[in-house]
Each structure stands twice: as C-alpha cells, then as structure tokens.
Amino acid sequence: MPRTAAPTHTPVLSSPVPRLADPDRRRTSASVVLRSVLAHGPVARSTIARLTGLSPASVTDHCARLARLGLIREAAVPRQSGGVGRPHVPVDVDDSRFLVGAVHVAVPYTTVALLDLRGRVVAERRLKHAGTEPARVLARAGDGIAALLAGARGGTPLAVGFAAGGWVDRDSGTVVRHPLLGWRDVPVREVIGARTGLPVHVDGHARSLVNAERLFGGARGSRSVLHLFVGNVVDAAFATNDEVHYGPRSQAGAIAHLPVPGGTEPCDCGRVGCLQAELSERTLCRRARAAGVHAGVNPMRVLDAAAAGDPAAVGLLVARSRMTGRAVGMLLAVLNPETVVVTEVGAMHREDCLAALRQAVGADRADDVKPSAFADAVLAVAGGAVALDVLYRDPLTVSPEVN
Fold first, then answer.
1. What strand order describes the sheet that includes 243-244?
2. Before 23, cis peptide (omega within 30)?
3. Are 192 and 125 contacting, i.e. CB atoms less than 8 angstroms apart?
C-alpha cells in the first residue's frame, strides 16, 4: 500500500484547547489552595502541596498570587522544618482586608450583616418589615448594608450575598416565587446591585448554608451533605463532591409539601400533614399561643419559655424536633448522604430536642445528624455565604485594584 504523504506544513505544538482549559485549571487550583489554607492554616506550603496533590512549584505560585490579591498572608511566626535550612513560613487566610455583605429576607424581617473571609459575622442588624413589597424591602436592605459599611472600621467590601427561602434562581439573580412573602419574579441582583454598587450573588438559603457548613462549619470533609432548613419556610439542599444540586432554574430542594408521617396540620394546598405546615415557625408559635406559652410570633420566645422551665414550651419544642427527625429519616432513605445538617431552633439550642430528633432518625444514622454550626447567626451566615462561596470557588476574580 502507498505510504501516506508527509504533511507539508509545520506542526502546531499548542492547540486552542489547552489555552482554553488553562484558565479553568488555574482557577480550580487557586480554589483548592485557598480552601486548603482556610481549612488548615496557618499551614506550610509544603503541607498544602501534600494535601492537595499539586506540585510545590504550583503551590508556591498560587500562594504568591493569592497574597498579591490580599486573600492570604504569611503567618507571623515561622515553623521550624525539623532539619537544616530555612524554617517553613506558614500562610493563613488574611481576614483583615475584605468583607462581604449579607442579606437574608425572612417572613417577619430582613437580616443585613457584614462577614469576614472566615464566615464570621462582624456586624449585623435586623430590619423588621413594614410591609413586604419587594422594592421597599430590598431598598431598605441595600441601605442597611451601606450603613453597616459606613460604620465598619476598615475592610473593603467585595460583594453582597443574598439568600431567602422559596424558589430562588441563582443564575438570573431572581426570587421566582416566595408564597409567604407574596413575591414573584423579583430581580434581586439588579435592585440590590443598583443600591450598593457592588456585585450581588443570589441563592436559596438552604443551598447557601450547605456551602457555609462545608467551608466553615461541621460538614468540612464530607463527601455528601444534606441540609434541612426549618423556619417559616421549610426546604432542603443536597451537595455531593463539593457541588450543590440545583436542578432546572434552581428548583431543587422544594420539599414543603412532602407528607410527614403522623402529621395532622391542614396545609394551604388542601392536604393534611405537609412538611412546611407541620414544622413552620408559624405553626409552632400558634400552638404556643394556644398553650398559653406566649402571645407573640417569635419562636425564640418559645425557646426562652422552655429555658425558664415552662413544660408546655418544652413539650412543643421536643415534639417539633421529633417530627423534624422523621422528615430527616425520609430524606436519608432517598438520598443517603454522609452528613445531615439541620437548621431548626430546638435542635440548635437544646440537647433534649437534638436527642429527640436523632432518636426519630434512628440509631444507625443518628450520629451523622448535626445541628447547624451557626446557631447564633444562621440567617446572616446564609446571606454572606452566597458571596463567600463564589469567592472560594474562583478567588482569582478578586481584582488587585481593591487592595
């Protein structure tokens, strides 16, 4: 057979594919390095290389770039290497330069806050709703962030994170539907961005808190995490291998109308025993009023009454946590995550409630269920974690001009 003719042109040694892939590779590696510093810092560069599988030269390069951006810094005291030569100079997250804004819109009020790069709340305010018309609520939220920044001592704002319950579309930055607020197709990113002049990232609060738990909380290192949020809105989020499941238009996690075993509460949908109808804070407070515990709509008042020894308040909280455990058991049977995090007022603050929840889950998985790590600031963290997750996934987007 005739031999194939040799090409007459000079071979191209680099194709467009590596050039397109290299920025993605750099972003991924920078993210891996920054997350490793967050999880283990102060940490030596050689340890980062061992933990991440990146080459020492690559780690050194990424650490230099992240330091120039102001995201990490060398720790004050070098660590001795144990041998001859220069001591290892560890690096750590620089939490002194930057802040992110946080907005969480709940049914009775909006939480605005500032968080540092470790997810710690450095300033917070609650703005009680004077009506829930979207433009007014979001304008007050933007003004609240501006006021907190004006009062902050140092710290350059990078972005604002927004979280809420209901159907929140991350990609469009829109609250598509929030039945309890009466919101539909609200352009949150556009409105808050115009008010603050900052980039705005938007997500549902259950998904945001999954990322917060993986970055800063009790789910670090878990390969799969289920988060159940039990407030006035009841919804869930599921993450595997560092990726939260969103589904088309970010609709995943809508579990409000799942039936709860033993549920008796009428739901607005016309059925009985739906998850949100049974577990919502509105239901808890209505039952507390009927039992003479208190006359308000704040679930923390029920918690205070239980702490003061009111047996009716204790019974209501334990029963709610127990039913939450039944819901967790159903979700565990379907998704089988490694770790479950529950944001529910009783389980976060009372050992008897957490014990009741775990008992309802079952002994074989009880130890895998944890209360939220952010019991005292969960709504502020939910908002801020939206922006912090974006930062830790792509730290190279921080402009050196903000330093």
1. 243-244, 234-240, 224-230, 339-343, 369-371
2. no
3. no
Phi-psi domain of 40 (left: phi exceeds 0; alpha: psi -120 through 50; beta: other): alpha
Q: Retrieve residue 113's tokens.
A: 């806050």
Contact 157, 122 (CB under 8 A): no
Nearest to 371 by CA among 356, 385, 383, 388: 356
Centre a 10 Å sphere on the Cβ of residue 227 and count the other Cβ atoms it contains. 29
Q: Quick check: 113 and 123 in contact, CB under 8 A?
A: yes
Give the orientation angle of helix 378-393 with respect to helix 16-40, to 10 degrees: 140
Q: Which amino acid is at 44?
A: A
Cis amide leading into 42 (omega within 30)? yes
Helix, strand, or coil (residue 216) = helix
CB 210 within 8 A of CB 170: no
Q: Give the whole-angstrom CA distance, residue 319 versus residue 331.
A: 19
Q: Is 365 exposed, middle or buried (0-12, 13-18, 19+ CB in 10 A)?
A: middle
**pLDDT truncated to tens, each residue of the chain (403 aa)?**
344 444 333 333 333 333 334 668 888 999 999 999 999 999 999 999 999 999 999 999 999 999 999 999 998 765 555 555 456 789 999 999 999 999 999 999 999 999 999 999 999 999 999 999 999 999 999 999 999 999 987 889 999 999 999 999 999 999 999 999 999 999 999 999 999 999 999 999 999 999 999 999 999 989 999 999 999 999 999 999 889 999 888 888 899 999 987 889 999 899 999 999 999 999 999 999 999 998 788 999 999 999 999 999 999 999 999 999 999 999 999 999 999 999 999 999 999 999 999 999 999 999 999 999 999 999 999 999 999 999 999 999 886 555 5
DSSP H stretches of helix in 201-280: 205-216, 275-279
User: Position 154: which residue type?
Assistant: G
Amino acid (1-letter code) at residue 142? G
